[in-house]
Amino acid sequence: MPFYDRSLDAVVATAPLVDKVGGLTNVLSRYTIATIVRSAARSGAPQVQAFDGALTSAEARGTRLLVAQRGQLIDLDSGTYMEIFFPDRDASNMAPSDGCLVMRLVYGRTSFFFSCGPPALESYLATLDGTKLKSDVLLATGRDPELFVGFVSPQFAVVPQSCNIEATSSVFSELGVQTLDTCDGSVTFVSDGQTVSTST
Q1: Would 68 be classed as within a structural domain?
Q2: Cα–Cα distance for residue pair 158/112, rounded to 1 Å
Q3: How many domains does the chain have?
Q4: Considering the domain boundaries, does residue 130 fall inside one?
Q5: 3-class state of residue 107 by DSSP
Q6: Nearest to 83 by CA among 108, 112, 103, 109
Q7: How far is CA 182 from CA 16, 83, 159, in A?
């Protein structure tokens, strides 16, 4: 983005956890955001409460709030869209980590599966959806069960870690999935001749 561009089409708050939304509070106050996507799950943590306040202010300025739930397709234009897999029920009474958003981003012919929940949630989705989870890239948790990774069947798994490659789950190597860590803050893919960057 050029430095003078102060607008974003969408912001996705994957879970009401400090490490997921703590830095978004300033983004919401400094940018004009068309749509904010979030889960119905809530948290009493002060940093998350600050995010909720910034979100309310953004709504007053015209930002559209979308509380995502299973089955929704969010059109991001030009053939790019998000498909929500979880929560599959009202998440307002779920624990913040259990009520997170699990989704797939389809960008042209490349798909990115975003997982955020505990292994039990990933196992549940593997049983519920099976091969429907298939994606080119898995943004993993690092604790992903073999059944889940097998159904996603990614070419790449992006594993969040603190520059410690030994922390990567052996599941990925057993299934022949190339892992990329996020210790430098971003990962860049070349797909269909286009460069796709993800910031962490």
Answers
A1: no
A2: 10
A3: 1
A4: yes
A5: strand
A6: 103
A7: 21, 24, 7
Q: What confidence tier does 185 reach under pLDDT thresholds 50, 70, 90?
A: low
Which tokens hold the place of 2?
Answer: 């050029």
| Contact residues for 190 (Cβ-Cβ < 8 A; gap 6+) | 196
Sign of CA dihedral 162, 166, 169, 171: positive
Indicate the helix (H) or strand (E) that contains 174.
helix 170-174
Burial of residue 73 (CB within 10 Å: 0-12, 13-18, 19+) is: exposed
> Does residue 28 fall inside a structural domain?
no
Q: Read off the amino acid at residue 114.
A: F
Q: What is the pLDDT of residue 191?
A: 46
Partners of 186 in beta bridges? 199
When pLDDT is cut at 50, 70 and 90, the band that residue 168 belongs to is: low
Tell whether 88 is covered by a domain.
Answer: no
